[in-house]
Write a structure and sequence with these properties.
Helix content is about 35%, strand content about 20%. With about 140 residues, the protein is of the alpha/beta class. The chain has one domain: Rossmann fold (3-Layer(aba) Sandwich). Helix 2 runs parallel beside helix 3. The longest helix is centred in the middle third of the chain and has 15 residues.
């Protein structure tokens, strides 16, 4: 029997996806980071080719938008690669889910990814926080 509380993502994809904007790579495109540990959390989806992103930033924006078009709150975003592209992917994720994003953060000591979630209301939970950020 199907769980009535099961999300569309789970039903459509069988398991969550782990989005990687781009992996740092050597000159020949060989990734410097293994995403194998992230596979525990879901299917790994690399958005841009390993190494340097396209020279035109709008190509990167379009690729992120296409890849994350069906992003859901069950999916994860890995914090590795170009910082500006991670920021864009986070914005697309929050837009797609109404302000919720799950991250995977690498822990060097335990040599594993650990999940954590952020929601936009948690980031801006009161007027004081907003005033501090805009001052």
């Amino acid at each position: 029997m199907t769980n009535p509380h099961q999300t569309l993502t789970t039903m459509t994809h069988n398991r969550p996806r782990v989005f990687v904007v781009n992996l740092p790579a050597d000159a020949d495109g060989t990734p410097r980071v293994s995403m194998r540990p992230a596979e525990f959390f879901g299917e790994v989806v690399t958005i841009l080719a390993n190494g340097k992103p396209p020279p035109d930033p709008m190509d990167s924006v379009a690729a992120i938008e296409r890849a994350m078009a069906d992003y859901t709150a069950d999916d994860f975003l890995v914090m590795v690669g170009e910082m500006d592209l991670i920021a864009l992917a986070t914005a697309f994720a929050m837009q797609a889910t109404g302000g919720v994003v799950q991250f995977l953060k690498w822990d060097r000591v335990h040599r594993a990814y650990f999940p954590y979630a952020a929601t936009l209301p948690q980031l801006f939970d009161d007027e004081q926080t907003i005033e501090t950020l805009t001052a």
